[in-house]
Amino acid sequence: MNNVIHLKTPISVDDLLNLKIGDVTFISGVIFALRDEAEKRIYQRLSKGKDLPMDLKNAVVFHSGPIVKRIDNDWKVIALGPTTTARTGVILTKVISLTGIRGIIGKGGIASKHIKDMKSRCVYFSFPGGAAAVGSAATIKVIRRYWQDLLEPVWELEVKNLGPLVVAIDIHGNNLYDLILRKARSQLTRILNKLK
Known about the structure:
about 200 residues
C-alpha cells in the first residue's frame, strides 16, 4: 500500500527523504508554473551571474502552460495541466542545481541519463494527463506573473491540495517509469515463451 502524503511549500530535502516511488502526494502553498522557454531563461540568467525575479530555492515547479484569464483586476486560472518534462533535458538538471528546486511536477518523466543529476536534490511528481480542471480547482490565487514578454510566462500560484501527484522519481534516484518498463518486458517475455 502506497502512502498518501501532504506537503507544504517551501519544501526541504528532509521533507523528501521518506517519499518513495508510487506514493500519492498533495501539495499546498506556492508553486511556479512554467515551460521550456522560461526554464532556458532561468538557466541563462543564473549562468551569467544574474538574479531571478522569483525565489526558486526549495520551490516546486510545475511544467505547465496554464490557461489564465484576466477578470476585473485579478487573474483566474482556467486550466492547469502538465506538459511533457522530458523536452527540457539537460537544462532542467542545471536549473535544479543552480536554484535548489526541490520538486518538479509534469508528465512523461525525465531521461534516465539526467536522473543521476537530480539524486539527493529533487523529486519528480507525475500529474495525471487530461486533468487540467483538477489543477485549476486546486489553485487559490495567482500571486504574480513574470516575464510577460515570453509567449508562456512564469506564473507564481498559491495552491491547496494540488494532486493527486504520484512520486515517479524519488530523491534516491528510484524511477517508477523504469520499474514499470522492466515489469512489462518481463511479462512480455513470459507471454511469448508460453506461445512457443
